[in-house]
């Protein structure tokens, strides 16, 4: 009995130690990439370019990004409806604003999903349905950004170096393969016959739930909404670029910005900072944009995405205050 308690205490201490190290590693990745960019790019020139940005065109770029938060909330509500969760639309708007704000300080993608899951649990949604809705939402986001990238690749294919061509094709193939695997989950013998219980059973049930709803009307709507989100983001980048003095055609930016957004979603940095900047500088260089202007574009784009989530700070504070007064 005593040995079991000691073993459980050791496991708890191990988990407690792992979490900070994982977070520190992601902070190190972001800082390391930013430092590398500082060494690679003429930083004073990039700051001068940003300081001389045209306010009017910069404002238009910002306004293009503003609706993306509400559209992300709508996408999530569609995925939740497909997962048999019924909540008022205002719940998703508040939760999305708060989760995106908190996600500014957490690992890319994962932090936002963890905050949204917390809102679902506070709203007494079933855990399996909540996880299914978040997986559907993440799936809609990933497939749509790769779809936008695939549409844009032909417009810049001749200018792309072999490495970026390989990355683009690999992402398209990997996404198509992942979707195909989801569609045949129930035909995998050991999954279909698995009769166990516990966490593994629950995860398998969630995976089957995603498979059942992936072709639903709600999921299709979530995919189209996600495409609109990324198209608005790319339009914002177009206007940010114009404010810095260069003009790249919208269709030429489809693949470049989509690639940058995709890598920024990987949970290897703090909200994609550093990773996104490196991808944008490398991608825009293909289109003849200077490294300094490309870095300025990426920083202003990231800053705009952070600013639009500021209302979430107030909403997150209200939620935490409510929990401290009336814990469930």
UniProtKB/TrEMBL annotation:
Membrane topology, as annotated: Multi-pass membrane protein
InterPro entries per UniProt: L-PG_synthase/AglD
CC per GO annotation: plasma membrane
Keyword check for Oxidoreductase: no
Major site of localization recorded for this protein: membrane
Subcellular location: Cell membrane
Transmembrane intervals: 21-41, 53-74, 95-119, 139-157, 164-185, 220-241, 253-273, 293-318
Entry keywords, A to Z: Cell membrane, Membrane, Transmembrane, Transmembrane helix
UniProt superkingdom: Bacteria
PANTHER family per UniProt: BLL5419 PROTEIN
Listed name of the protein: Flippase-like domain-containing protein
